[in-house]
Amino acid sequence: MVETASPGKRAALECLLFAAGGPVAVSTLARSLDLVEKEVENLVEELQELYERNGHGLQIRQVAGGYQMCTRPEYAGYVQELLKPEVPTLSRAALETLAVIAYRQPITKAEIERLRGVKVDGVLHTLLSRELIMEVGRKEVPGRPILYGTTPRFLEHFGLASLEELPPLEEEKEEHKEIAAALAEEP
What we know:
The chain has nine helices and five strands. By secondary structure, it is of the alpha+beta class. The protein is elongated.
C-alpha cells in the first residue's frame, strides 16, 4: 500500500464516511478534505486495503455515485439482530411497482397501472414517502402527467452503484412473463 496523503487525512475521510451514514459523493469528500478527487479515491483505496488486511468488520463500497462505509456481508447478521427492521418490508405490490418504475423510468402512473393492471395510488404514496421514488418531471402530452423515477435511496436500499446493475428481467419464469414482456416493449 502506497500512502498518498497524511494519515490524518485518511482518518478524517474515515470520520466523514462514518458520520454520513450513507453514500457521499467524491466531490463532496474532496471539498471537505481540501483534496482533489483522485487523492480521495486513493485514500478510499488505502482504507479498503487497511480494512481488508486487518480483518475489520467494515468496508467502503461505491454506492449510488459515492462512497459509503458499511458492514461486511459476513457480519451483517449481527447488525440485523441488533437493529431489527425499523420499517416494515415492502409489500409484493410495492416491489412490483418499484420494479416497473426502475426498469421503465421515467414513467407515468397511468403507464404503471396499464402494465400492472391495477390501481397504484396507495403504492406510489408509500414509495414516495419512503423516498424510493420521486417525481422527475412531467410528460409532454395533454394533461402533463407526473413522471416517476427512482432515487439515490433506492440504489442505496438495494445496494446498487447505478441502475445498470439491475438484474436482467427473468422472462422464462411463468409468473413474470407478462410483466417482463410489457417492460420490454418500446414506450
